[in-house]
Amino acid sequence: MQINFLACYSKYFFKMLNLIRYNHLKFSFFLLTFITFILLSLEKDNFEESIAIIGGGIAGITAYNTLKNYGYKNVKIFEGSNRLGGRVYPLKYKNGYLQLGAQFINGQKNPIYKLAKKLNILNGVENDDDFIYMGEYKLGSCNLSNNILESFTKFSRNLERYYEKLSRNSVMKEKSVGDMFYDDYKSFLFKETKFGDKIKIKKYYDALVKLYKSYYEIEWSSPIEKLSLINLDLWDDKENELKSYTLNNIGYQAILDYLLQNITDSDIQLNSRIININYSNYKKILLTLNNGKIITNYTKIIVTVPLGHLKKYGYSLFTPTLNKKRMKAINLLGFGNMQKIFFYYDKPFWDENTKWIHTLSIDGCTNTNIFSEIFQSFQPLEWMNKNILVGWLSGKGPHLIKDIPDNILSDIITNHFRNTFNNSLIPKPIEIKQKSWVSDELFLGSYTYYTPESNLLNEDPIKTISRPIFKNKKPIIMFAGEGTHPSIYQTVIGAYLSGQREAKRIFRHNHV
């Protein structure tokens, strides 16, 4: 506490030292008395302030740690599930952890990268678009010619960088990535199908387009038709290249353990979903739990629930209800669908050096059905002797499989692999692990993005959502989480920084 005191009032402290130096004892005594009063006031305020954090993800955990470092004593996390971590969800498996949620780190100039480096869990770096261009393509009874693949690669590889430049033009704010891509693809296709079998060539390119679109759906959690160009301008991980940092077999579990090490059990209330925050009396905010219990002793609330939860429960979660401007921002921002499925095999049926497998559904080459459309990209998990394939689902995929039991899903994926690999001997997976984010009421999706509609609002919708609710010029309800960070939303980094931001806001308004 003394460290924070000196940081905030250092100018008074050094002035006192100078006065003592020059024997201005009368003034020195006055300043010493003043500073002592401030210190006691700080300690008294921090003791009496009662703060509830709604949601135990990275934003909530970081807010808690920051407040405790400032000296606040009465801070509690209310978490609706049976665990802390939110969308950081490492699942213990064999000698490591399956990352059911966050997996990569975006950029080096942030506290999460620095923490990963400190914990010695950094493993390497991947170019984001290697997802498309470094894979093996499986098309059943057909082969993808090098000419078609090279032409499509030449056409598409730098499109995202090109669209990023376009996004800086204000007249483009109503455009989606899809608006731009379909026009560009139409022109490309016209040139490529001038000669040869147009129908045959087009079906291969169309299959590659589906894969290219899935890259955006996985990377941005958004269909390209809904992904505003402005995302490519606003989102910034301080890197010049499209790349992400990978972690070892422990991964985010090490980061989670580090962040949780100073949280006491008495300050955590698990399985306690908050269904209403009544701030009519701002000196005594009422929290209603899903079991009907009402808690009445909080003066400050930090809400860290995901945007997907706010979209469904935003009106009922607050009394008085959130204003129309904030709710409109919540409703117009996007909150997409992305999910990983881990298929464990006794031994791999893919090549040892495989980085990615892309199973393309093409009429005349494979048997096509609703599931062949959603299962497109698979990545061997290196640390498990490559016996695990990670299936990346996006778009409508997570919704289609959310109610399918594992034994049926095992049959579906086995038939899909046998079909696209053109190999009837491919075995069934021994085990399947997954987490459905779209069906979890605490999340209802994966992460945030700007839509073209949200860009038409008079104010940046993330800025609108992240603005606190004030009473008597002091914040009483604050908002944190990845969807409240203006430039690194969608990430653990954004969640961490937003939790820190709101804890600092409380301290600043109390003491500065």
Automatic annotation (TrEMBL):
Record key words, sorted: Cytoplasm, FAD, Flavoprotein, Membrane, Oxidoreductase, Transmembrane, Transmembrane helix
GO cellular component: cytoplasm
Domain Rhodanese: 55-93
Predominant subcellular localization, coarse grouping: cytoplasm
GO MF annotation terms: polyamine oxidase activity; primary methylamine oxidase activity
Listed PANTHER family: FLAVIN MONOAMINE OXIDASE (PTHR10742), PEROXISOMAL N(1)-ACETYL-SPERMINE_SPERMIDINE OXIDASE (PTHR10742:SF405)
Name recorded for this polypeptide: Amine oxidase
TM stretches of this protein: 25-42
